[in-house]
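The protein record filed below.
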Amino acid sequence: MKTIILTAFLLTFNITLQAQVVIISNSNTTNCDFTFYDTGGVNASGYSANQDFTTTICPNIAGKAITMTWFTFNLGTGDQMEIFDGNSTTAPSLGVYTGTQLNNLAAYASPANATGCLTIHFTSDATGNGVFNASVKCETPCNFPVAHISSPSMPTVKLCLGDVVNFDGATSTAVMPFTLADYKWDFGDQTNQVGVATTASHTYTKVGRFIASLVVKDNNGCSNKNAAFVEVLVETKPKYTIISPTDVCQGTPFCIDASVASPPMPPPATNVYASGIHVPDNVGQCFESTQFYNVFPVGAHLTSMSQLQSIYASLSHTYVGDLIISIISPSGQSVVMHQQGGGGTHLGGSYYWAENAPNGTFSG
């Protein structure tokens, strides 16, 4: 199964913003919903040379922790950002980041961080040529559980129409002191089972290729990030062909030719578009549309971007200069397909990205 998430990040130039903007400075901020920018602000003009700022961001909701999703992270040579897991630079460091290392990634306060805060220390050299911004939210601090399907033990199961498959997710685990509280079985045929049961039985009544998956949630409200799934192939009914003589004499031996064949599996769905999403002028907000593909072998993955032939999208938007568009794979790896640019160009129609696309880009 392949999942491609087409994500549109919106950065707007409109002064009537619907979400708060915080510019990096030597300050403390207590807030759970805003966009964090370099000193160039929403116009993405970038930060200046010789900057040295420390900003501490804390949640204003008890029991929550700060999560920063970096829409854009492109630091110039010699510039760096260090993120600390707490309310000061004396807290444990989550890492020192340069270049594009944080682009489209998230940094979040750990469950061991009682403050739920993150502290950002940024420095630029004498050149000062870069840009960064992030969406800041308050979320439940998670030690993510791990989902695991122990039965069926094979990655692919072949069935006859009407057969029953028994699934077992009892080997899924939570991180202490938390325990698993919820198991969601998606059988891939538009049916599911949700509850505390670690096992599930399902009868497949349609012919085709299905992906059965398991998502677990612990009593801290955190779900697994790993993929746990089984490919189920429900075979088509075999076709029997018998060829025999039309006339024979009584007592005379004769031959009957018979053959049996299974028709090929149904072709994959022709709908290559995910569900539509509306992208309003909400500064810093992320909008996602997910498309599932079940035509690839279980466990298959791309080893080179050249293996991704093309991506199509139907887009309508009045200002391409405020969009960041990315694709994100199930592993969390991402590729930025459009990084603002294009000014007031209007989008309306079908667009595609390819390695050697013959036409120009809509960022012009």
Q: What stands out?
A: Confidence is low (pLDDT under 50) at residues 1-18, 268-272. DSSP finds no helices and 25 strands in the chain. The CA atoms of residues 252 and 322 lie 85 Å apart. The two ends are 35 Å apart (CA to CA).
